[in-house]
Each structure stands twice: as C-alpha cells, then as structure tokens.
Amino acid sequence: MIRWRASFWKRWLRRRDLKLATSLKKFAPSQTLRIEPGVSIGNVGVGFKSLEIGAMTYIRSGSELINVQTIGRFCSIGSGVVIGQEASLHPLDWVSTHPFQYTATPLSYDSGKEPVIVGHDVWIGREALIFDGINIGTGAVIAARAVVTKDVPPYAIVAGIPARVVRFRHNPETIAGLLSSRWWTLPQGQLSVLPMNDPDSFLSAISDNPLDQVNYKVIEIDGRGCRTVSD
Predict the structure, then answer these.
(1) Which residue in 90, 98, 120, 170 is the catalytic one?
(2) pLDDT tens digits, residue range 153-171?
(3) Among 18, 85, 166, 196, who pairs with 13 as Cys (CB 3.0-4.6 Å)?
(4) CATH number, domain 2-169+217-229, options 2.60.40.10, 3.40.50.880, 2.160.10.10, 3.40.50.1980
C-alpha cells in the first residue's frame, strides 16, 4: 500500500511538470515544501521546516536541504550540496560540546540561526557547503566545494574555503538592470525568444516591449501527499 501511494504521488507530480525523487516518507508531519512548475528535485536530505522553491529550479541527488527557507526560480544546484549547515550545532561556551548536556535534562540549546535565502538564477556547484543564516543574492555563482560563511552579493562568483568573491558576472550597470527587470517573473516561452546571450540587448528588448508577469501554480508537499494551493 505504501509503495502504491508513493508511486501515485510521483505520477501526480510528473503530470504537473514536476519531479521529486525524494520519498514522502522522509517528510516529518511539520515539514512543508512548496514548489512551482518545472522544479526537479533528486533524492535529497530534507531537514527544513518550510521551504519554497521557484519555477524551473533543479537540485541534484545527494544534496541536503537543512535550514533553508527559499530557493528562487531558475536555480541550478549540483550534487552533494549542503544548504543551511548549522554553524553553531554544538555549544562552544558550555562545559562540553556534547549534546548529553541538553538531552533529557532541564537545559536546552538553540543555535538561533536564521534559514538560508537563495535568490533567483543562482548556480551552486557540486559539494558546496552553505552555512545557516546566509543570503545568496540573485545571479550568484558558488564554485564547487566552496564553503560559504557570509552573504554573497547578487551576480558575484565566489570560490574557496572560506568562499570569497572572485569576480562579478557583469558590470554594475548591467547587474542593476537585470535586478530591476525581474526577468524571472516573465513567461518562459517569451524569454526563450529573447537574446538571452546578450544581457544588454535583452534589457533593451524587454524595455521596448514590456512582457506580462507569469502567475505559476504552487504545489504543496508534505508527509501526507501533494495538493495545489494557488493559481
């Protein structure tokens, strides 16, 4: 019966242009995932409380989504990526770092870090590690095996341990134009006929011919199943 239920929901998602290889059995009763069309998620670890993933984003198998709240549209996330690793998983200023101190005792420990926020059009390379409380700006690139310990500006390329800005993808004027355009809110069919290989020409094209914003359906997933929650 459980096997039938799992296969039913996988087919249900595929009919809606979605892919989720992760079993619904991994979801705790309190966990909620909301995704837009075109999202593809491999077999990943799910430690988040509530997560929203934007249209066309894909996440390869082997990644871990620990303490993350939002992943934007058109993101590319490689295998083995860890998002939201707790930087203060164990207390450093207590007598011990071991969890016995707050397991079945009157004491409690909370690292208190905020979840990760990932913008739109972000590329995260294989086995990158992003600590909790980090904001990854729209258009950023995280190199493979980078360890991200602080916020990443929009359209920055970062690499290394700890990750540092190597360069920016575009000049400041083009970056400002792309952010202002909010191109990720436009219909993909219309985007595909624009000069995406030339940012300046692209910005001119949408400035001369404003496009309508797309309104995607949102699918909510939890341990009980899947449902459409908005249009």
Answers:
(1) 90
(2) 999 999 999 999 999 999 9
(3) 18
(4) 2.160.10.10
Pick from 14, 54, 15: nearest CA to 33: 54
Whether 90 sits among the annotated catalytic residues: the reply is: yes
127 — alpha (psi -120 to 50), left (phi > 0) or beta? left
pLDDT, averaged across the chain? 91
**Measured distance CA(130)–CA(151) in Å, rounded:** 10
Cis peptide bond prior to 99, omega within 30° of 0:
no
Asked whether the predicted pLDDT for residue 132 surpasses 90, the reply is yes
Domain extents in the chain: 2-169+217-229, 171-215
